[in-house]
């Protein structure tokens, strides 16, 4: 059985995740990457969107999870995204989620903090 990948890169969402009260009050931008290993089935030959993981619908699900319930940890958020995607489509064989938080409340100079979670199915 063939496997192919679908990647959603640098999806930007505004949300209120974080441990501190000001993060909940102010919110900030989060950047999300998703890599899906998808069972090919008939999609590569049929050329029919119904035979694959529709990446527009996958994006909408990621957006709903990221902008929905507040989490203290981006680790928990990444895990929720991964679990939501694997539960959503039986064609997904592995999902990797990276969440970047550019505005971290620490005393230091850095571009962002990133957490990655991987779930094989």
Structure, explained:
The structure is a single chain. By secondary structure, the protein is of the alpha+beta class. It has a single domain (about 5-120), classed as GTP cyclohydrolase I, C-terminal domain/NADPH-dependent 7-cyano-7-deazaguanine reductase, N-terminal domain (GTP Cyclohydrolase I, domain 2), CATH 3.30.1130. It contains 4 helices and 4 strands; from the N terminus they run E-H-E-H-H-H-E-E. A 4-stranded antiparallel β-sheet has the order 1-2-3-4. Helix 3 runs antiparallel to helix 4 (about 75-90). The protein is elongated and about 50 Å long. It starts with a strand and ends with a strand. The model has no long low-confidence stretch (mean pLDDT about 95).
């Amino acid at each position: 059985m063939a496997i192919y990948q679908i990647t959603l890169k640098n999806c930007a969402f505004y949300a209120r995740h974080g441990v501190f009260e000001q993060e909940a009050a102010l919110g900030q931008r989060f950047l999300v990457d998703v890599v899906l290993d998808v069972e090919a089935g008939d999609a590569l030959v049929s050329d029919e969107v119904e035979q694959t993981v529709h990446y527009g619908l996958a994006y909408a699900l990621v957006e709903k999870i990221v902008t929905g319930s507040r989490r203290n940890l981006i680790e928990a958020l990444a895990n929720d995204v991964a679990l939501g995607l694997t539960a959503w489509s039986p064609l997904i064989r592995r999902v990797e989620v990276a969440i970047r938080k550019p505005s971290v409340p620490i005393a230091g100079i850095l571009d962002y903090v990133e957490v990655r979670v991987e779930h094989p199915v």
